[in-house]
Amino acid sequence: MVMGHAADGGSALVLFSGGQDSTTCLAWALDRFDHVETIGFDYGQRHRVELEVRPGILDALRHAFPAWAGKLGDDHLIDMAVLGQVSETSLTRGVEIAMQANGLPNTFVPGRNLLFLTFAAAVAYRRGAKHLVTGVCETDYSGYPDCRDDTMKAMQLALNLGMDTRFVIHTPLMWIDKAKTWQLTYEIGGDTLVELVRKETHTCYNGDRNHSHEWGYGCGQCPACDLRAQGWERFRFSSSDNGNV
């Protein structure tokens, strides 16, 4: 059962990759706005399977939460192959995931979130959507500078100045870790939504959909799997203490 929330009204565009975080943000938006559309980006990522699971997640949300079905509008998939062409990262090249001399992992794709938000804003402008929702986070993350709260505030200002409009960038996960992200999923849609996120979404950087774990599918070795698994364990432990399971 979806926990009720006073609707904010209006239209929102959710940056929806097919992963845990963006799916949680999509549910968050569906619980708040009158009309919600989604946008994804194909930039040649090695874990392209995340794009392949997106339609199934959308269908599952419509089926599991009929109250959301009428709110969930068009899905937009943008070809961003040029980003992969100019990036030398482990997400866009067949190289091993590793730390770099600058202190960032080579999973960091420079400019990715900046470009995503710019293209999302352009689509939102055309579609008449005021709200942009993204799953960036400063808590359980790899230090990506384009996930920081300051970056989001700067992007909101730049987009509003450059398009002479009043977009609002929402970052529901900015100050919570992965365990609390699972908890937010539960608070929005109960066990039904938790199971949907666990089984249908994809986080693994290696694109592994063959190995199933308690927390979902993935290689179980990459940084994305590790974060998701650790968050799941803390969430289940906390849920047991609180009588949620």
Automatic annotation (TrEMBL):
<dbReference type="Pfam" id="PF06508">
    <property type="entry name" value="QueC"/>
</dbReference>
<keyword id="KW-0547">Nucleotide-binding</keyword>
<keyword id="KW-0862">Zinc</keyword>
<comment type="function">
    <text>Catalyzes the ATP-dependent conversion of 7-carboxy-7-deazaguanine (CDG) to 7-cyano-7-deazaguanine (preQ(0)).</text>
</comment>
<keyword id="KW-0067">ATP-binding</keyword>
<protein>
    <recommendedName>
        <fullName>7-cyano-7-deazaguanine synthase</fullName>
        <ecNumber>6.3.4.20</ecNumber>
    </recommendedName>
</protein>
<comment type="similarity">
    <text>Belongs to the QueC family.</text>
</comment>
<keyword id="KW-0479">Metal-binding</keyword>
<feature type="binding site">
    <location>
        <begin position="16"/>
        <end position="26"/>
    </location>
    <ligand>
        <name>ATP</name>
    </ligand>
</feature>
<feature type="binding site">
    <location>
        <position position="222"/>
    </location>
    <ligand>
        <name>Zn(2+)</name>
    </ligand>
</feature>
<keyword id="KW-0436">Ligase</keyword>
<dbReference type="InterPro" id="IPR014729">
    <property type="entry name" value="Rossmann-like_a/b/a_fold"/>
</dbReference>
<feature type="binding site">
    <location>
        <position position="225"/>
    </location>
    <ligand>
        <name>Zn(2+)</name>
    </ligand>
</feature>
<comment type="pathway">
    <text>Purine metabolism; 7-cyano-7-deazaguanine biosynthesis.</text>
</comment>
<keyword id="KW-0671">Queuosine biosynthesis</keyword>
<dbReference type="InterPro" id="IPR018317">
    <property type="entry name" value="QueC"/>
</dbReference>
<feature type="binding site">
    <location>
        <position position="219"/>
    </location>
    <ligand>
        <name>Zn(2+)</name>
    </ligand>
</feature>
<feature type="binding site">
    <location>
        <position position="204"/>
    </location>
    <ligand>
        <name>Zn(2+)</name>
    </ligand>
</feature>
